[in-house]
Design goal:
The protein is α+β, with helices and mostly antiparallel strands and 379 residues long. It has helices spanning 3-21, 32-39, 53-64, 69-86, 121-137, 182-192, 201-207, 237-244, 272-292, 304-312, 318-326, 345-352, 371-374; strands at 47-51, 95-101, 109-115, 149-151, 154-161, 166-173, 176-180, 215-220, 247-257, 260-269, 298-299, 332-336, 341-344, 355-359, 362-370. It has two domains: 3-206, no CATH class; 234-372, no CATH class.
């Protein structure tokens, strides 16, 4: 994957991180019906996401970042970078759906469907191709533009790289564009013309289970690298790996209630007994985090010696812990004694405040925090 392709996906990753941390509006979210319709245009996938992109970008971002212009400008720069690289302006779209497949049955592929009720998809593609031509012309040894390919009555265009190893796009209808890798875009076309069944209804139902939310997602967990019952030789760490290997599906949502962010992640186990055991393990992890919060933060990437020294140190008192963590550099990390893990301080703080409950085969992780607390830190 070349430098520009990595830049595109870096911009996408930052955009998704922004979505997770920063969303909110006083208007009601799209109906589950609209989300279901949008998701049903995706090909079979292992992970699907629905985002109300227009609300997030046009309403939420300015309001949430009004007190942090530096971070707002950084995010706008990333959006502009994505537009420059791909020729696609994220601000023009109303809805975004994402489908990722990593299973052996469907093969690895990625596709995003961007829909805008007021856009002309053909004009957007033309602008993207124009930007691609400008980038090629600026290289030391300009290459001719890759030839588009016809597929099932649609045309697939190369935005970056090559047809087989790059970013491609196609117009699905007057207001919808498919962008991703070649396999993903071609699969989306197959669904569009009726040659392939869309992503299964169970995943769609899970992703839209929480109505009135800004983001919904669901997915299946791929087979674990360490099968249930096997040992990785990591001591206490094995017990967590063993339990998590029995998670089969996950789903969740992101929403905003006034000034608070509400995040839901549900892990679905293969049976109720496994769900209970996983819930207990997560509660134990929270207790470990409470202890870890009393330790001195260590620089990210510090070695085993620093971790062992930290594990031996101990302080007590909730007030002492809270004062220490408030002063913690967000880019530092904390060691978890007994697990052999070093975790970013913000992750430790967030999970320590997460509510964990079990309902049947579902393990629910709920977090409600002020939006300001969840905003990513500007460097």
């Amino acid at each position: 994957m070349n430098k520009e392709i990595r830049a595109v996906f870096r911009a996408l990753a930052i955009g998704l991180a922004m979505i997770v941390f920063v969303c909110g509006s006083d208007k009601s979210a799209p109906a589950a019906e609209a989300a279901s319709d949008a998701l049903s245009a995706l090909p079979p996938s292992d992970l699907i996401v629905f985002v109300d992109a227009q609300r997030m970008l046009s309403e939420v971002l300015p309001r949430v970042f009004s007190s942090n212009p530096t971070l707002r400008d950084q995010i706008n720069t990333q959006l502009d970078q994505f537009k420059t690289i791909s020729g696609l302006d994220p601000r023009a779209f109303d809805q975004l759906t994402l489908g990722i497949s990593f299973s052996t049955t469907t093969g690895e592929r990625l596709v995003a469907l961007a829909h805008g009720s007021h856009i002309d998809a053909n004009q957007v593609i033309a602008a993207a191709l124009s930007e691609a031509a400008k980038r090629r012309a600026q290289t030391a040894h300009p290459l001719p533009a890759p030839e588009p390919e016809g597929y099932q009555g649609k045309t697939v265009y190369v935005l970056d790289g090559t047809m087989e190893n790059g970013i491609v796009a196609s117009v699905l209808d007057a207001n919808t564009i498919a962008i991703g890798d070649f396999k993903g875009v071609r699969a989306a076309i197959d669904v569009n013309v009726g040659r392939m069944r869309h992503v299964d209804d169970e995943l769609i139902a899970l992703a839209t289970r929480e109505s009135g939310v800004i983001i919904g997602f669901s997915g299946r967990v791929p087979p674990p690298a360490i099968a249930p019952g096997e040992s990785s030789g990591s001591g206490t760490h094995d017990s967590f790996v063993h339990e998590l290997a029995f998670i089969r599906q996950f789903y969740g949502s992101f929403n905003v209630e006034q000034t608070n962010a509400e995040i839901l992640l549900v892990l679905r186990a293969e049976n109720e007994e496994r769900a209970r055991q996983i819930g207990e393990r997560l509660q134990m992890l929270k207790q470990l985090l409470v202890g870890a919060l009393t330790q001195e933060p260590i620089p990210t990437g510090a070695g085993t010696a620093a971790q062992e020294k930290q594990a031996r140190s101990s302080e007590t008192g909730a007030a002492q812990r809270d004062d220490k963590m408030e002063a913690t550099d967000p880019h530092q990390s904390i060691a978890l004694p007994g697990l052999g893990l070093i975790v970013a301080a913000p992750v430790v703080r967030t999970f320590e405040k997460t509510e964990v409950t079990v309902e049947g085969t579902d393990i629910l992780l709920k977090l409600k925090r002020p939006l300001a607390d969840l905003m990513p830190h500007a460097r």
